[in-house]
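Reviewers of the previous submission asked for a worked example of the structure-prediction workflow described in the proposal, so we include one complete record here. The input consisted solely of the amino acid sequence. No template or homolog information was supplied to the procedure at any stage.
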Amino acid sequence: MTNPFTPAVKHRHFLRMALVGPAGTGKTYTALRLAQGLGARIAVVDTEHDSASLYAPLFAFDVLPLGSFAPQAYLDAIAAARTYGYDVLILDSLSHAWAGKDGILERQAKAAGPDQWGNDRLAWRAVTAEHNALIEAIMQAPLHVLVTLRSRVDYVVETDAQGKVTVRKVGLRPIQQDGLEFDLDVVGTLDEDHTLTITKTRCAALSRGVFPEPGAEVATLLRTWLQDGADPLVDDAAMQTLGAWVKAHPVSVPELMRRINGILHTTYQNPRELTQPEFTRVMAALTQDTPADPAASA
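From that input alone, the workflow returned the following structure tokens.
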């Protein structure tokens, strides 16, 4: 049996980061400061009544205000940022996709309404698929994505040995689906002094970090970490592009791999082994080598 495991390799990749905090802690401003250090072209999805544009004198960015916070509205915005070549996308805020107008909670309530006999389980099944599609789009986007998350005070109800029930404040909780932080590279909370405390990170340089008014320093640490490693592997969108070419020019998988390895002088067994730069070379060569359609030139 061939060993299915391969040596681990760190690839260069795009940032997925969340900034969490209550109102007035500087989430939008901090996101813009960090974005400025990560890329030249910045796009902002604004769910806060054009509040991001108040920072236009300080930062250069393009903005897309949302009137509906349905998952599809976010998906369309992510697709547009990708199509128009932005380096960084700020979703300000992602909380609205959960608890805003047309967001997941509102959609779930409607799906479990009288017309659906109040079937809560079926309602959650329907909207969970929509939310998962949004998170997957964030993870797959070929650009840096920063999200801001509103937070609220979280409490627990406890019963002591004498049976007395007490309510205890345990901190701030992001307004979003539980567990979102597991998918992200970096999560940080902002306080009223605009100090960022890193609560989860895959970037060792940020571990246990506390950064007053974070900006260029944090962006530099992130950029160094993101750019360290091998070229990134192809993403799902690249595979879809390759799949569309194969559909238009039917070839078997062995023949496709023969062509790919001939172009790159490699010995790959699967298109998923391609890096993004290699994919660009392959598609350019395949397109150039494809004979013109006689019907199209007639």
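DSSP finds ten helices and nine strands in the chain. We consider this example representative of the routine output the project will generate in years two and three.
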